[in-house]
């Protein structure tokens, strides 16, 4: 197998054939993500950006933006599989805006609109925005800028939202996981703050959304687990509820390990932010996708 065939088999084809992740691209993507996370941290420290709870909250709208854009791409359907483009099928929605967007085809399934491309784009947008608003000393505008980009895309999904009962179940399981994680940390003599709780909330959401969408959802759309490790958990235990349980336990343990390390407060906050992103991004995407039924 030559290099071109290797790249095609393990990286290109899984994107365009929508078959999800494999062990090779999972490891490679993780290494790349960790490298850039380390590089970004060094640069942020160099330009004296303070990484605290406020910083974490300012990043969340960018995470929501990436997940929402991903669901908008899902709404364009899959012609090869006979799944209709929701913008063209509902062309009169939002005073004809759906039809206009569908004909533009700017959200069609391609590398930069799907995983991992969309998260690379959002990651770079977030980082460059951080540097810009830090330079002009207006960091308070950072989340507002992200929300300005987020809201129009969220608006595109609102007419499609219908599966509220399943979404409510996801939210109930999410908050149940949060309470369990908080209980675990308190039993370990750790009083969790906002950032610590957000990590558990994010991973509880990811686990709950996967479980409900794959095993309980009856909205006519068949979902499957695309990630290698989570799919393996579902196979071994025979249910994706195991993934939810592991997510709650993992996030609680991860917070405990970070908080009991010898790293500085800013280093801990940055690691907690990364952990939150890895749970919140797929969790919001899966929940929104199920809610919209795309």
UniProtKB/TrEMBL annotation:
Annotated keywords: Membrane, Transmembrane, Transmembrane helix
Residue ranges crossing the lipid bilayer per the database entry: 20-43, 55-73, 117-134, 141-158, 164-185, 197-224, 236-258, 270-288
Entries under InterPro entries matching the protein: DUF63 (IPR002749)
Record keyword Membrane present: yes
Pfam families for the chain: DUF63
Top-rank taxon, per record: Archaea
Keyword Membrane: yes
PANTHER family in alphabetical order: DUF63 DOMAIN-CONTAINING PROTEIN, HYPOTHETICAL MEMBRANE PROTEIN, CONSERVED, DUF63 FAMILY
Protein name as it appears in the record: DUF63 family protein
Native source organism of the sequence: Fermentimicrarchaeum limneticum
Organism lineage: Archaea, Candidatus Micrarchaeota, Candidatus Fermentimicrarchaeales, Candidatus Fermentimicrarchaeaceae, Candidatus Fermentimicrarchaeum
């Amino acid at each position: 197998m030559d290099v071109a065939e290797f790249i095609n088999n393990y990286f290109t084809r899984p994107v365009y054939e929508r078959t999800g992740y494999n062990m090779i691209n999972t490891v490679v993507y993780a290494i790349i993500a960790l490298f850039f996370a380390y590089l970004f941290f060094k640069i942020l420290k160099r330009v004296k950006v303070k990484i605290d709870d406020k910083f974490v909250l300012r990043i969340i709208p960018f995470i929501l933006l990436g997940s929402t854009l991903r669901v908008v791409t899902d709404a364009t359907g899959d012609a090869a599989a006979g799944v209709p483009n929701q913008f063209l099928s509902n062309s009169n929605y939002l005073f004809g805006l759906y039809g206009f967007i569908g004909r533009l085809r700017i959200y069609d399934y391609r590398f930069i609109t799907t995983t991992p491309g969309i998260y690379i784009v959002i990651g770079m947008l977030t980082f460059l925005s951080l540097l810009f608003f830090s330079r002009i000393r207006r960091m308070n505008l950072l989340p507002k800028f992200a929300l300005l980009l987020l809201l129009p895309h969220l608006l595109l999904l609102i007419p499609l939202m219908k599966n509220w009962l399943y979404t409510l179940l996801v939210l109930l399981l999410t908050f149940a996981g949060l309470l369990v994680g908080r209980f675990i940390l308190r039993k370990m003599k750790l009083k969790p703050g906002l950032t610590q709780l957000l990590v558990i909330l994010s991973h509880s959401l990811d686990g709950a959304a996967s479980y409900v969408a794959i095993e309980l959802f009856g909205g006519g759309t068949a979902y499957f687990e695309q990630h290698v490790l989570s799919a393996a958990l579902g196979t071994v235990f025979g249910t994706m509820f195991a993934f939810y349980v592991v997510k709650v336990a993992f996030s609680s343990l991860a917070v405990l390990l970070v908080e009991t390390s010898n790293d500085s407060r800013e280093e801990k906050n940055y690691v907690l932010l990364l952990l939150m992103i890895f749970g919140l991004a797929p969790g919001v995407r899966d929940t929104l996708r199920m809610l919209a039924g795309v």
